[in-house]
Write a structure and sequence with these properties.
CATH superfamily of the largest domain: Nucleoside phosphorylase/phosphoribosyltransferase catalytic domain
Organism: mine drainage metagenome
Order of helices and strands: HHHHEHEHHEHHEHEEHHHHHEEHEEEHEE
Radius of gyration: 22 Å
Protein name: Thymidine phosphorylase (TdRPase)
InterPro entries: Glycosyl_Trfase_fam3, Glycosyl_Trfase_fam3_N_dom, Glycosyl_Trfase_fam3_N_dom_sf, Nuc_phospho_transferase, PYNP-like_C_sf, PYNP_C, Pyrmidine_PPase_CS, Thymidine/pyrmidine_PPase
Number of strands: 13
Keywords: Glycosyltransferase, Transferase
Distance between the termini: 39 Å
Number of helices: 17
Pfam families: Glycos_trans_3N, Glycos_transf_3
Oligomer: single chain
């Protein structure tokens, strides 16, 4: 595709038209080789942002970006599942659900990313475990899924490289929030990862990428629909992200929370509810009914924790490294400035504060002692800061306390 043909495509999309599958393949190929420059690709992305893509266009763009790189295969495993979260704060679901599902007999191959903005990244969390290898060669990743039943590793640059280049451009030019582009970006990487089925956790709320529930529901529907076009069964859950999911915020401290949750020394009803819901959907894809019951049993009897340890050991770390992982010293207790009901918890502010803390120590972070809807008294502890670099006023400002009663929002907003 030359400059003139690209301009024609931009104008067509700008005016609300659609582009044929062949055109999308030509655009991705030309952009990957440099035949199309950033200026024209940015113009097309912005036109898409305002005019959106129909489902055939999303499929074509997904396929074109998928074909720009390598694709993993699991020839000796009948069915492999993967899960994807659109990003949240205090979200330890992947660290808990992956070993649960594997312990129930359904293999999981998860390629994950790093933190984006205020949200946490699964890879950053696992790096808090001394010796844990996040970068696996393709043959190592496949062999581990076959042998251990699960692996979580950093996505290789060889998978959907066209998406990586386009995402960087979208991020620089303000065209990230387009449902069609988001779906193509997620699925090109997920399909390249080789899994046979997917569960998508689409976050919705003030700390999520999607603030509007109708937009989040549209994204969830499109992910399931486009996956089906590639013969990949999928489920989606739209979950609330108006406050941190768990109590801990920060890469290493979330890993500690996940460890303790898996071995039964920490309880959190919100985390447990979402973990069991997502695990059940993953198990259903693998052909197992009664998924919540199976997942709860694997969690309760220690099989999930032992599978987590097996994964950790396969990726270069040790049981001792996991079990000796400790929260950073220098805890500062934050107390409520007034009595009332917790009406709002600014997860974006807390996520950003936790990132600053973890720059000094991997297991630094913030641990909340309250959640939305709880009644608190003046001087009651509402959080602890582990590490230095964040002031008490930041946390107090992030936790809004009001006189009137305030109900906690529902956690699961929709299931597809």
């Amino acid at each position: 595709m030359d400059e003139h043909a690209m301009r024609t495509a931009i104008e067509r999309k700008r005016d609300g038209g659609t582009l044929e599958a062949r055109t999308w393949h030509e655009i991705v190929a030309a952009y990957s080789t440099g035949a199309i420059d950033d200026a024209q690709m940015a113009a097309l992305a912005m036109a898409v942002h305002f005019r959106e893509l129909d489902i055939d266009e999303i499929v074509a763009l997904t396929e074109a970006m998928l074909e720009s790189g390598e694709r993993l295969l699991f020839p000796r495993v009948p069915f492999v599942v993967d899960k994807h979260s659109s990003g949240g704060v205090g979200d330890i679901v992947s660290l808990v659900a992956v070993p649960i599902v594997a312990a129930c007999g359904v293999p999981v191959a998860k390629l994950s990313g790093r933190a984006l903005g205020h949200t946490g990244g699964t890879i950053d969390k696992l790096e808090a475990i001394p010796g844990f290898r996040i970068a696996l060669e393709t043959h190592e990743f496949i062999a581990q899924v076959e042998r251990v039943g699960c692996a979580i590793a950093a996505a290789s640059d060889a998978l959907a490289p066209a998406d990586k280049r386009l995402y960087r451009l979208r991020d620089r030019t303000g065209s990230v929030p387009s449902v069609g582009l988001i779906v193509a970006s997620i699925l090109s990487k997920k399909l390249a990862g080789g899994a046979h089925g997917f569960v998508f956790d689409v976050k919705c709320g003030s700390a999520a990428f999607m603030h509007d529930e109708s937009e989040a529901l549209l994204l969830a529907r499109r992910l399931v629909e486009v996956a089906a076009r590639f013969d990949r069964p999928a489920h989606a859950i739209v979950s609330a992200m108006s406050e941190p999911l768990g109590r801990c915020i920060g890469s290493g401290i979330e890993t500690i929370e996940a460890r303790d949750f898996l071995r039964g020394t920490r309880e959190d009803p919100r985390v447990k509810a979402l973990v069991l819901a997502i695990s059940a959907k993953m198990l259903a894809l693998g052909g197992l009914d009664g998924g919540e019951r199976l997942a709860a049993a694997a969690l309760a009897d220690g099989r999930a924790y032992e599978r987590f340890i097996a994964m950790v050991e396969a990726q270069g770390a040790t049981r001792a490294a996991v079990e000796s992982l400790a929260i950073a010293p220098r805890a500062h207790e934050i107390r409520a400035a007034r009595a009332g009901t917790v009406a709002r918890i600014d997860a974006v502010a807390l996520g950003n504060a936790a990132r600053r803390l973890t720059q000094h120590a991997l297991t630094a972070g913030i641990e909340l002692a309250v959640s939305i809807g709880e009644r608190v008294e003046r001087e009651q502890p509402i959080a602890r800061i582990y590490g230095d670099g964040v002031g008490a006023h930041e946390i107090q400002h992030a936790v809004e306390i009001v006189d009137a009663p305030s109900a906690a929002p529902p956690l699961v907003l929709a299931t597809l």
